[in-house]
Amino acid sequence: MCRRSWFLFGLTAAWLGGAASGWSAPPQPPEGPAAPAPAEARRPADGKLRIIAFGAHPDDAEIRLGGASMLWTGLGHHVKLVSVTNGDIGHTRISGRPLAERRTAEVRAASKVLGTTSQVLNIHDGELMPTLENRRTLTRLIREWNADLVLSHRPNDYHPDHRYVGVLVQDAAFMVTVPFFCPDTPYLAHNPVFLYYYDGFQRPNPFRADVIVSIDSVIEKKLDALLMLESQFVEGGANAYREPFPNTPAEREVCARHAREMFARRFAETAEQYREKLIELYGPEQGKQVRYAEAFEVCEYGARPTPADLRRLFPFLPPKK
Fold it and tell me: Which of 35, 74, 193, 314 is an S-S bond match for 179, by CB 3.0 to 4.6 Å?
């Protein structure tokens, strides 16, 4: 046998022998620290729900969840609205830190009306990316809030920041339960339910209303809260649809009235669009009378709620008859 053949024969024999003896198994990493305790150990013992909602900008969660937020907080439950970017390009006349600080102050004012907690992350508007760092940030926020319910945009929204909030929340939906991912923050022993906000986009899949909530009892206060976001809904935000720019109190009052009417129509259209679901959840008599609504879709990630679970998470829905 030639030298090359002996060499190949030796390699084969060594490989076969190693496979039989377990020699080929990769070395194991050194033993790490013990798994952290789950976050439930720090959960307040008040028996109340804990809801955290992520919006791309300082107005998104308030628009999509403001009514339900007040229904929850009115029953003593805990709601946190997180703006994942700071909104620092959402205007035509100011930008950067002055605008970010102004929009942060606006959502704080809105939160006082809604009864919620608010937080604005220091990520530039229009620059959100689905990075590992941002996945860790959202995972930690969900854990720190001990969330029962997590809400976000769907990942096929028109705005890149909206889409990537949806992607990041989806990516966090499993990782919140993994002890050694972000081990500095206690993990959740039970996965929350994840929901999407309503949107009208059809591709690749249209929104499905799994839950729809009557906000008739709080519609005026919700509109009051939205008008706290003056940079967006009085002055026109990033798209300069307020021309001429409203400088005088009278001009600002006109713009605020138009914004209020626009939002009222929007929430009324949601109720009409999902009238059958309202009748299913509220019964024929009440469901037909609802004027304003917010709608949500169950994400297939995270916990998979039953109809009874959804009624527990939305305790202001009437009991099923």
Answer: 35
